[in-house]
Specification:
Pfam family, one: PGA_cap
CATH superfamily of the largest domain: Metallo-dependent phosphatases
Protein name: CapA family protein
InterPro entries: Capsule_synth_CapA, CW_Biosynth-Accessory, Metallo-depent_PP-like
Strand content: 15-25%
CATH class of the largest domain: Alpha Beta
Order of helices and strands: HHHEHEHEHEEEHEHEEEEEEHH
CATH architecture of the largest domain: 4-Layer Sandwich
Structural class: alpha/beta
Number of domains: 2
Number of strands: 13
Family: Belongs to the CapA family.
Length: about 450
């Protein structure tokens, strides 16, 4: 058995169907030709690249296709890489703190409608991680598709070459939620670049559907999208959700407040809307404010510097406590960030993950199949006579989104469990084994900090 530090040269994208493989070969040939002219430049993420289809130039489209179909950018500023690799993600409590209550929050990434996600293919999807993930007091993820049962489902195409308009189904949502074996989600972000895929009517139908499932939606509304509050064990947790883009679509003036849409991937963006919702939540009694930020740059191992700067501004100017990044599809690292809260004036630590990656999904881009699932523990107590609420611990479960090569089965595989056993599941082919080796290496080199022993669940 080879150690899990073994690295294989897996391609960036791996189609399943014959037609998909042919199309990928054609695209790789095209972008291979372009690489002679732009490859060296495109090996480093462009500075301040918004990655917003509404504002793409033709050259932006070529760059995006190059990093997806041919070669993701491998060069990142050394200072940025070292910053994330040297993170200390422990959260020591204040001296004299007496804990009175706690709440756990499970966090997952993007829930997306892929054709291979069917009841038949997902009978064992949750076997290794479901108990751990769905056992928290609050379970959260990003629902990156409308769910409009009155309309035909629309899945992510195997090879993405044009604008995509998603729609999920009741069956798909049941799979997302644990196949009926677990409690499912408490709250989902519905603010992302696919919020408008079924139009304004689709927003309403999705909200009605989630309400019928006893799931809170945050980030979209029939009238004015704002924060949502959940109280557990005497701790008030406020959730906010904003998206940087609605792809090529736009809301008219009458409907613009139905989605929290703010170009939060542009340098110098005005953060007033996030600041106001954060202040409103804290004035309403929120002990902790969590922002789901659908933003960043896809198919690169580390966030771009401008995204990091914007996250830091959100802490400093708005006073949120936790930022959960989505959109980049592959995992991007975590950080602990010290700042002075503009609301309370107290120095504190914020926690960010720059990308939670795809979750229940199956992109042909291999990096997307490494999934970090988080469990965050929040505690409330006293220091003397002063009540304090703070983040106590973050745990990470490192998951391989395994798919049978013929497309007939999916499972979430706990990478670190099998690394410890120095083995692989019996149903793995050699190809599957190499892919998990590759993704475990990606996890260790790019996602986990150097000191990660206490992080792993």
């Amino acid at each position: 058995m080879k150690p899990f530090t073994h690295f294989t040269n897996e391609p960036a994208v791996k189609a399943t169907s014959f037609s998909g493989k042919i199309l990928i070969l054609i695209l790789r040939g095209l972008y291979g030709f372009l690489s002679f002219f732009y490859g060296k430049k495109w090996n480093t993420p462009p500075i301040n690249f918004e990655e917003n289809p509404l504002f793409y130039t033709f050259k932006d489209i070529l760059y995006f296709g190059h990093k997806y179909y041919f070669k993701p950018p491998a060069n990142h500023p050394t200072e940025l890489v070292e910053y994330f690799k040297n993170q200390d993600l422990t959260f020591p409590l204040v001296d004299g703190f007496k804990e009175q209550s706690c709440v756990t929050i499970s966090v997952g990434g993007d829930l997306m409608p892929y054709e291979r996600i069917t009841k038949e293919n997902t009978q064992h999807l949750w076997d290794e991680v479901g108990d751990w993930f769905f056992s928290s007091d609050i379970v959260f993820a990003n629902l990156e598709s409308p769910i409009c049962p009155s309309r035909p489902p629309k899945a992510v195409p195997e090879v993405m070459l044009s604008n995509m308009l998603f729609n999920g189904s009741r069956e798909l949502f049941e799979i997302f939620s644990g196949n009926g074996k677990y409690k499912g989600y408490d709250i989902l972000s519905t603010a992302n670049n696919h919020s408008l895929d079924q139009g304004v009517e689709g927003i309403k139908e999705t909200l009605d559907f989630l309400k019928g499932q006893n799931v809170i939606a945050v980030g979209t509304s029939e009238s004015h999208a704002t924060y949502k509050m959940i109280s557990k064990g005497g701790i008030q947790i406020a959730f906010l959700a904003f998206t940087y883009s609605l792809n090529h679509l736009e809301l008219n003036d009458e409907d613009k407040e139905k989605v929290n849409h703010l170009r939060i991937n542009t340098e110098g963006v005005d953060l007033t809307e996030i600041k106001q919702q954060t202040l409103d939540a804290k004035n309403a009694g929120a002990d902790i404010v969590i922002l789901s930020a659908h933003t960043g740059n896809a198919y690169q191992a580390f966030p771009s510097q401008h995204t990091v700067d914007i996250f830091h501004r959100i802490y400093q100017e708005c006073g949120v406590d936790i930022i959960l990044g989505s959109h980049p599809h592959n995992a991007q690292p975590m950080e602990k960030y010290k700042f002075i809260c503009p609301v309370s004036g107290i120095e504190k630590y914020g926690f960010s993950i720059y990308s939670l990656a795809d979750f229940v999904a199956y992109d042909i881009f291999v990096w997307d199949r490494f999934i970090p699932l988080l469990k965050i523990e929040i505690v409330k107590g006293l220091v003397g006579n002063q009540s304090i609420t703070c983040l106590k611990e973050v745990k990470v479960k490192c998951v391989f989104n395994w798919g049978k090569p013929d497309g007939t089965e999916m499972r979430f595989v706990d990478i670190k469990k099998w690394e410890h056993l120095k083995s692989v599941p019996e149903y793995f082919t050699k190809k599957c084994k190499n892919e998990m080796f590759y993704l475990n290496d990606f996890c260790d080199k790019n996602f986990l900090p150097n000191k990660s022993e206490n992080l792993l669940a």
